[in-house]
Amino acid sequence: MAAPTDTKKGKLASYFRGVRAEMKKVIWPNRKELINYTAVVLVISGLVALIVWILDLLINGGLSLII
Q: Is residue 29 within 8 Å of 37, Cβ to Cβ?
């Protein structure tokens, strides 16, 4: 019964070694880039919300005319 736990530990250790190796390859944004990317995401999210709200108003108005 010791063999299955040993292989689980080995697989888990191997997994975390792989995670660590991949994290070293990541190019992290600096503060200026992070602020710019965040602003872009917020602006686009706001635009999408506005478009969905307008479409909702139009569909609601159209359905209220039909019903």
A: yes
Residue 28 region, left (φ>0) first, then alpha (ψ -120 to 50), else beta?
beta
In whole angstroms, how far apart are CA 57 and each of 45, 48, 64, 67? 18, 14, 10, 15
- Tens of pLDDT, residue by residue, the chain (67 residues): 455 556 888 899 999 999 999 999 999 999 999 999 999 999 999 999 999 999 999 999 999 999 8
Q: Is 0.85 topped by the overall pTM? A: no
End-to-end CA distance of the chain: 69
Sign of CA dihedral 26, 28, 29, 30: negative
